[in-house]
Amino acid sequence: MLELAESLLALLVVCLSALVLLSAWSQMAQRRQLPPGPTPLPILGNLLDLKTHDMLTSFKKLRDQYGPVFTVHLGPRRVVVLYGYKAIKEALVDHAEEFSSRGYLATVDDFVQGFGIAFANGERWKQLRRFTLSTLRNFGMGKRSIEERIQEESQFLLEEFRKTDGSPFDPTFFLSRSVSNVICSIVFGRRFDYEDKDFLSLLAKINENFVLMSNTWGQLYEMFPWIMRFLPGPHKKIFRNLDDIYDFVAERAKVNEASLDPDNPRDFIDCFLIQMKKESKNPLSEFHLKTMIMTVLNLFIAGTETVSSTLRFGFLILMKYPEVQEKVIREIDDVIGRDRVPAVEKRAQMPYTDAVIHEIQRFSDVIPTNLPHALTRTLQLRGYTLPKGTDVIPLLTSVLKDPECFSDPENFNPSHFLDEEGRFKKNDAFMPFSTGKRICAGESLARMELFVFLTSILQHFTLKSPDQPEDIDLTAAANGFANIPPAYHLCTVPR
Length: 495
Hints:
52% of the residues lie in helices and 8% in strands. The longest helix is centred in the N-terminal third of the chain and has 32 residues, at 2-33. The model is unreliable at 14-30 (pLDDT under 50). It has 17 helices and 11 strands. The termini are far apart. It is an alpha+beta fold. Helix 7 (172-187) runs antiparallel to helix 13. One of its GO terms (molecular function) is heme binding. Residues 1-24 form the signal peptide. It comes from Podarcis lilfordi.
């Protein structure tokens, strides 16, 4: 009996050893088919190869070593990184369908659970995107009606600037209030007073989350969410902030539902509630309360922080390069004048201003890593096998600062978008809104906001820094998920 037990034990050991060896061999074979990359450590992955406070530099070094398509392990999670215009175009444009799924973003996935438009997949994403684009168009996105809302909000912003009497101030929440009110007018059907404490609190939470997701704590959470979610630290604030924003949107939805007139929708929430009623008997419908709240939350956050961050970077850049600011002001005076409210139709007559705005977007690079993608099916890319479901990070910063596409990528230079005769010149590598099937749904709105807000401000004010131009530092305060503009003060001096 003892001999039989020993034999069974020996057989079990042999079988387990064989399984371990087979698993190791299978993983090695699979890794040979994947893009190259540093060898991961158990559990830690490539933590020792990455600087959590400066992931973008770490990725650049890996590109230099392994090429424009490489594999990296964020903790135990395997991710393929795409670097440079050619690699990202090949993936997101030439293989748009295969790269159309949303990948895993640990700092928000546990919260959104795939319900909002930005993080949904499959049929849910298709239904939500189709509905969202149609509804935004109906509320004037890309049309004159939404431009009038932006123009109106720009006048409120100008009045706030006048109240500063040319004294130094931090522009952060001046800009986020104005930009946010544009998307608020669409999704909530109203703008908020600049002194509304609840509104200001929400804007502070959105801003804080972008900072937290981009610093070391946020990057560690991306690598080790299964540990970090149980550990104390600043990263916990991300989820408390998201809960508060969720509660605000949910409360707005209740208010709308109580006073809903199906024949006269007032905003995006009303339209979603109407669609929910239409599809209430459809078991395959993706239109329900949680999906609506998460989609509105996605639009609210994205429509607030990205444009306001770009403007904050832009103001700092224009103060560092006063000669650029002067040329923009001259063009505004020549084309628009001092008395008319700036309109997007004038942009075609203002090539230098258009080039400066594009260059601000390129240089500020506010979402450098892009949102992650995932493969909808197994794909061969540049001789490598990318299995279905593989998370992919198409680094937008590597396109916006690709030396093959921009002659002076590390420096601010409006001539990147001007030809030899001073006419505006398009560049296919201009991808601040990403590209392919997951391109930002609010691109046309953001482009309109940047033009109207910037030209309206420079039409009436000169931007001055308390510091000398040569002392202004354009380095981001944090870079990871987002490039966070450094804190600074400016003076808006009436012209």
